[in-house]
Amino acid sequence: MRPLSCTRPKHLFLIAGKPLLDWTLERLAKGGVSEVVFAVNNLSNAFAERYGKSAFGIKLHYSHEEKPLGTGGCIKNAQKTIGRSEPFFLLNGDIISNIDFNILLSEHVKNKATATIALFRVDDPSRYGVVELTPENRIKRFMEKPKRGKAPSNLINAGVYILNPEIFDYIPSGRRVSIEREVFPALARDKELYGHQFEGLWIDIGEPADYLKGNKLLLDAELQKGHIPSTVKLQGRVEINHPVAVGEHTTIRDKSKIGPHVTVGDRVTIGRDVHIENSIVFSGAVISDFSSLKGTIIGEDVAIGKRVKINEDCLVGDQAMIHDRVTLAKGTTVCPQKEVVESVLSARHIM
After folding, report:
1. pTM (two decimals)
2. Which of 54-68, 273-287, 317-331 has the lowest mean pLDDT?
3. What dihedral angle (degrees, nearest 10) is formed by the CA atoms of 160, 163, 169, 175?
4. Of residues 216, 269, 214, the one with CA closest to residue 242
5. Mean pLDDT across the chain
6. How many CB atoms sit inside 10 A of residue 72's CB?
7. Residue 295 belongs to what H/E stretch?
8. 246, exposed or middle or buried, with CB in 10 Å at 0-12, 13-18, 19+?
9. How far apart are CA 275 and CA 295, in angstroms?
């Protein structure tokens, strides 16, 4: 997700009208979770600045890592804060899911498991951790990112877990530890690892195409009628094709067509006769008259000139400037603060 992830954590990427982590915290709160620990290192101030000590009725703690400790090491690092009194959830921050946390907890307790992994069925499991289950839903084998065609199943690790405090005994201290490659295989060997299959909404926003797909799915699931705050200025005959989510204090001018499946941040200025479809536009961007965006991601405070055409799978970093009449070919990436003064007719990275 570079260059967007160079300037903000993926967890705070705008999606369906608000940061991804807002959706996760809201669902945890609805599931009865009262405290959350953030495992943070790089760009950690962004979390504290947005959420402080509480959000959505949840008390927040911050477990800082001086150096990255991996998906297992971060749990060990937060052991004192988490404690050993009860099971706890562990979530990857760049996952969109509508899993029922209470059902996951119930299955975990019923199986007397040390760890339970939420499992989701996908067509191509080669990008993920894959499991092989017994009829009792015990995981007898865990394989991280198998080669294509070598996976034991198409049930993948969905990045949502519930763990007993005994998990700390499986994680060595003082070094980087992968829970997927070191801890889960050990638990499977000891017959302490279980899986819980669920259906519904799930996507990992690790790549731009997945990020746009996640925006589409979440808009369809949560905002079918769209979200247009009262502070938004629609000037003239603006056509909104929902689902569309628009941020506060945004202006959209005459004859522009927005949607479907568009998220626009706060304080964005969209000029006259602009067409935007299946795209995400971060806060503060300016999109000038007669320009079009389709299947694109536009960073914060980007300036797009008149009669610009940005094609599918393009990603424009924060504070970049795209001059008038420029066309960006499908798959082009523009790094933050770069100026593009002439058309890019074949996909490339502009650094």
Report:
1. 0.87
2. 54-68
3. 20
4. 216
5. 92
6. 23
7. none
8. buried
9. 11
| 255 membership: H or E segment, kind and range | none
b/e 122-132 (16+ beta carbons within 10 angstroms → b): beebeebbbbb
Q: Where are the alpha helices (DSSP H) in the chain?
A: 4-7, 20-30, 45-51, 70-77, 79-82, 101-111, 184-189, 208-222
List all residues 6 or more positions away from 245 whose beta carbon is below 8 Å from its beta carbon: 16, 17, 18, 219, 223, 226, 227, 262, 263, 264
* Residue 289, amino acid: D
DSSP state of 199: -
Contact 285, 300 (CB under 8 A): yes
pLDDT at 94: 85
Domains of the chain: 4-219 (3.90.550.10), 224-350 (2.160.10.10)
Q: Which listed residue (80, 110, 112, 145) is catalytic?
A: 145
Residue of higher predicted confidence among 114 and 174: 114
Phi-psi region of 105 (alpha: psi -120 to 50; beta: other; left: phi over 0): alpha
Alpha-carbon gap, residue 334 to 326, rounded angstroms? 13
Asked if 110 and 27 touch (Cβ cutoff 8 Å), the reply is no
Q: Is 145 marked active-site? A: yes
Residue 52 sits at the vertex; the CA angle it makes with 47 and 55, to the nearest 5 degrees, is 95
Q: What is the pLDDT of residues 14-60, one digit of tens each?
A: 999 999 999 999 999 998 899 999 888 766 688 888 888 999 999 99
Give the percent of the chain with pLDDT over 90: 70
Q: Which residue has the higher pLDDT, 1 or 38?
A: 38
